[in-house]
C-alpha cells in the first residue's frame, strides 16, 4: 500500500486490528492544522515503507468510536498497531524523523517484518 487509506469505524477492526501488516493509525480532522502538517509526512512514509506498513487515517469528526475507545483526546494522535495490539502512541504534530523512528520501532516489534 503506497498511500494512506481512509477507514471508518465499521472498517477499523478488519483493516487495523486483524491486519497481518503493522498499521499506523492517524486520528485526524480536516480543520486540524497540525493534522494537515503531518499528512505529507505520512504520505511519504506510506511510499517509503510500502510493503511493510499500512497508514490508516480515521477522521474523528465522522468516526469517533475507536478514538473514544483508545482515549484519543488530542489530534493528531498516531497509534502504532501490530497484531491487534498498540505498540506505541504519538500525540501532536511530530517531525518526519520522529515518526519514522516510531515506525522502525513498530517493525522491530513484529517478528519477520
Write a brief structural summary.
With 113 residues, this protein is an alpha/beta fold. It has helices at residues 9-17, 33-48, 65-69, 96-108; strands at 5-6, 23-28, 54-59, 77-82, 85-91.
* Mean pLDDT metric: 94
Shape field:
globular
Biggest sheet character: 5 strands, mixed
Q: Give the beta-strand count.
A: 5
Beta-strand content estimate: 15-25%
- List low-confidence stretches: none
Structure description:
The protein is of the alpha/beta class. Helix content is 38%, strand content 24%. It contains four helices and five strands; from the N terminus they run E-H-E-H-E-H-E-E-H. It has a five-stranded mixed β-sheet, sandwiched between helices. The two termini are 15 Å apart.
Architecture blueprint of SSEs:
Blueprint lengths: L4 E2 L2 H9 L5 E6 L4 H16 L5 E6 L5 H5 L7 E6 L2 E7 L4 H13 L5
Parallel strand pairs: 1-3, 2-3
Antiparallel strand pairs: 2-4, 4-5
Considering the chains and any ligands shown, give keywords for the structure:
113 residues; globular; alpha/beta; single chain
Amino acid at each position: 500500500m503506497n498511500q494512506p487509506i481512509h477507514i471508518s469505524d465499521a472498517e477499523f477492526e478488519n483493516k487495523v486490528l486483524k491486519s497481518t501488516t503493522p498499521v499506523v493509525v492517524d486520528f485526524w480532522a480536516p480543520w486540524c492544522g497540525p493534522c494537515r502538517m503531518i499528512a505529507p509526512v505520512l504520505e511519504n512514509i506510506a511510499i517509503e515503507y510500502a510493503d511493510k506498513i499500512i497508514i490508516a487515517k480515521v477522521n474523528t469528526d465522522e468516526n469517533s468510536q475507536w478514538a473514544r475507545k483508545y482515549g484519543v483526546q488530542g489530534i493528531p494522535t498516531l497509534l502504532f498497531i501490530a497484531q491487534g495490539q498498540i505498540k506505541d502512541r504519538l500525540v501532536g504534530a511530530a517531525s518526519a524523523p520522529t515518526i519514522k523512528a516510531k515506525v522502525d520501532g513498530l517493525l522491530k516489534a513484529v517478528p519477520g517484518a
